[in-house]
Fold Ferritin.
Amino acid sequence: MLSKTMQDALNKQVQMEAESSQAYLAMASWADIQPGLQGVAAFFYKQADEERMHMLKLMGFINERGGFAMVPPLEQPILTFRSLQSAFAEFLKHEIKVSNSINDIVHLSLSEKDYATHNFLQWYVTEQMEEERTARTLNEKLELIGEDKSGLYLFDRDIMAYRGGEK
C-alpha cells in the first residue's frame, strides 16, 4: 500500500512524464515544418511516445499498489525554437529535470522504507541515465556541426539510428 506522500510524489511524476511527452510532441511538430528536419521530427515523435509509456507505467503502478493515479492537467509547452540547437538544449534541460525528480522519489521511497516502490523506480533511474546520455551526446554533435549544412543534413539522416551511444 502506498502512503499518501508517496502517492502524491508518484502522481507528480506522472505529470512530469506527461509534460515531457507534450514537450517532445511540440518539438516534433516544430521540426516537422522545418526544411530537411524530418529525421529530427521522427526522433521527437518517438520520444513523445516513450514518455507517454513512462507515464502509463507509473499510473499502473500507483493503482496496483492501492493508490489512485491522477490524470494531470498540462500547461502549453514551448512551441517554437530559434534553432535546432536550442530545441536540443531544451531536450537536455528537460531530461535533467526528470532525472532529479526521479532521484527525489527514490530518496523518499528509502526514507519511507517503501522497498516495492524503490525497486520499481530502478527502471526509471536506468532509463534516465540513458536519456541524459542521449541528450548530451546529441547536443555535443550539434555543437561540433555548428551551422554546417552538410553536417546538419547528416545529423538529421542519422538521428533515427542513434540509440544511446551506438552511433
